[in-house]
Amino acid sequence: MTGEMGCEQVRELASELALGIAEGEERDAALRHLDGCSGCRQLVSELSSVGDELLQLAPAHDPPAGFESRVLAALAEPPRRRSIKPLARRWQWLAAAAAAVVLAATLGAGSVLLATASDRRLAAGYQAVLSQGRGAYFLAAPLQGTQGRVGTVFGYQGQPSWVMVSLPPSTRDEDRFQVQAVTRDGRYLPLGDAVLGGAKGTWGGQLPVDLSAVRELRFVGSDGRPTLTATFDTTNPWD
Amino acid sequence: MGVAVVGKLSDESLLAGLGSGDADAAADFVQRFQRRVFGLTFSILRDRAAAEEAAQESFVRAWRHASVYDPRRGTVAGWLLTIARNVSINMLPTRRFDPVDPEDLLALEAKRPHQDRTEAQVVDAELLREPLARLPGDQRRALVLAAFYGFTAREISELDGVPSGTVKTRIRSAMLKLRSQLRVSDDR
Predict the structure, then answer these.
(1) What is the ipTM of this complex?
(2) What is chain B's Cα-based Rg?
(3) Start-to-end CA span in chain B (Å)
(4) Could you identify which of A149, A192, A198, A230 might form a hypothetical disulfide with A174, taking C-beta atoms 3.0 to 4.6 angstroms apart as the criterion?
(5) pTM recorded for the entire structure
(6) What is the Cα–Cα distance from A15 to A1, expressed in whole angstroms?
């Protein structure tokens, strides 16, 4: 069929147009008609909704373990290639979250493996970790002392959420801290006491709120001042 | 174990967050839709590795095109699943394959809980299940082959050995019946 189509012909083809299965010149002619006919456009639009709803009848199915992590890692990639600065920085954080899975899973004696944000292959090896606990994501932030960075805080968003701190051996003398989580709405939540420094290179605790609600983790020394702090923001702490 | 983190924001809000690069929204969006997206890609491709690849690509495309989503033209779920369907169809190695029996495809879902859907989403989709079941078998088959697998009338004609015109009529009749069902529900 060539040339122009009338409403009647287009309406006969409307279901195939809506389902995306119309072909060739027939489709081209129908699309030209739709350009100038709101009535036929309305019909195709309604039939498209039918097609959309039909797809929702397909059976839901659990994806393979680690799927969510792999998707988030994939989302983190394209902006870097496109060099869209603000967006790229935000998505690099997601790549860091994937890389942090590596670190969280291999934490031993405070050794810090510097995984790069672009190292998807490395991260992929640990993506299954998240799915084991139906976790949403990991992230990491530098733990800062008065003289600079002293270690790393890892966070896990899941049910429950938790944080873990890692210090390289002998970074500082052993000390006792009160640990606080500062939420994004300004609340201070006590997480208990921690002994860190010297031979004690790790501390971990459960969060009473989602990790996403936590802005900062504070280790308060005996003088009542935060001695060590880690801030969870949306920039890449591994840059 | 629940997934309490998911479910606080509307689908539209999560999609907007995904599009703007919000990491929390992205994680929630994927978590909310992954079972349905993978379920659809697996239904079409019948291969777990291929279905995962298609599902992942679907989320990437959703992120890229989030800004052009128009809520007036359909739900987020419908929009996303249409992306997943199109990605899957493009990955089909050949049209000369044995698609899952449309009757099986749709019967399966009726037995499964809808734990990851809002009530409204369940209602919308379920509105079509009964009318679909009431369609004559040949209309239902043609419709499912077209809607899920992207088979053209010509391809269904070759697959089932019936004239192309007959297939077109079956698809059109089925679609118009289902459309009238959705319209009835909108008018209530």
Answers:
(1) 0.84
(2) 17
(3) 37
(4) A198
(5) 0.57
(6) 17
